[in-house]
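Hi! If you just cloned this repository, the fastest way to understand the data is to look at a raw example. We've pasted two of them here, unedited. The first protein comes first, obviously.
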Amino acid sequence: MHATFMIYAAGSERQRLRALVKGVASEEVTWREQRRLFGSEFYLTGPAALARQAQERISLTLARFEGPGASGSGS
């Protein structure tokens, strides 16, 4: 069974997220970007377990970038 998972990135994070998505994409997990006014929605589609794993890996990586004390956090 295939599933699609979405990750949102604000405009300033588009490039970083795009690079992460490209890094986890494979023949089995494909992605597409839907640009919005203030950010982008990235959709990962593939076998449910693999797509969920890719989405989780990307989310955890983004959280490390955006966490307390992270560079570029504006503080």
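Ok, and the second one:
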Amino acid sequence: MEVIYPKFGELYPVDFVDSELLEYLKSKGIITTQKLAGENLELVDLSNYCGYLGRNFKKLVIPGKLLPVLGVSEEDSPEKIAEAFNSFFDRFFLWVLKRLAELPLFTLNVASYDAVEDFGRERDIYKFFLLLNLKEELTQAIEVILHRPHRVLDVEEVLKPVSEVCEVDGAILEEALCHPERWVESGGKYLPTELIQPQYIESFDSPENRFVKAFLVEILDFIENWDESLRSLLLEVEDIVSFALNSDIFADLDLQPSPPAYSQVLQKRPGYRELFRFWSLFHSFFIPQWFEGLNIAFSLKSVSTLWEYYVLIKLLDVLKAEFGPYKVVSFGEIKKGRGESYEEITFEFPNGVRFYYQLERKSYSKSTWRSDFFLELNGRKIIFDAKFREFSNNRREVLQNMHYYKDGFCADWAIAITFSLAKVRGILYSPGEFCICKFNLFTQLAEILRFLEYSRYTGVGFLNFKLEV
């Protein structure tokens, strides 16, 4: 295990990064690379990255400023730092996952979102989120099945005395003729003492119930593979699935992993219908495109990627508290060249306030710009850009990017949302005024929004967000 503490301007050879992973991170703008003039050597800038890299993920890239948050220092062993980072990431990821599940934006309706085909292990995140997001529907479906399970009539052939015989046909008589030992003489005639009779038994052993049991076993195995902190989110699902599997309905059944073809029970019967739909979602290779970021964040433990989700949640919280509930008025996938794609989402608040996620527009020079967050507020255009980096060590680069965004979007303000342990909440800069406003840590974000809305100034700046998970 090796720990890398990246600094702005430092470049590293890319040979330790898997080529496919490198291309993905570059396409998403998470890392940048450059080639040395006159040499066939590609170098990578890791100053905007935090997480694992390298083949077999043996290199941990982590900003030095994050170490106090983890409770470690550079003097500690790489193994101890990695252990502290893993624990921190698990809490961070858990917080983001829980909050995303609460947003009305991230509800799973298969027909609502663009999808990508994904055959990798990262689909586990999609399955986990599916269980988390639809756990109430899943629980209700299982309860309905337990209350009104599908039954079938099994027929068994049993021998009964002639006095108890209710049904006689050719097959029964033919069977009796083959067994003369059950015949006796009576009044010069031979009569059977016993005849085969059909006995109808109500049973749960149907293809549909065997399929349901197989799916419930799969869900339980899936949940048990996660660590305790994440399993706790699915405790309700785990309890109802375990209860169902131990019930008289499913306890003695065999497993049938594939659904029975053309089953009317799975298509129409309450409980079974919903569970079959859930199975279809659970096994779909086409997953909503916006899971790609969560996938890469989980597989690499990439704090840099989670930071954008964190900022989105925090900004929506503040805007909702300030302007009232919002609705999602558009959600679409924008496809770019070389397989790149992203989501452009529009949130609308009362009084005409609009908040955009990954808005793309052309500037007056017809060049294309895309911001993380764009706010239209009382005629003011404000850009927020999530950057998981410490401002004081990256001041020139951060503010330079904000100048680019402000000019490209013709915005009033362009502000970076950075991570820091500093005692300053943020600073705004305006032409001719230099530093017009310096916020301390006690300044609420709502107050800053009001300042941006009503002040006559325009400019660039940064705001520090505390990482609270």
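That's it. A detail worth noticing about the second one: The chain is about 35% helix and 25% strand.
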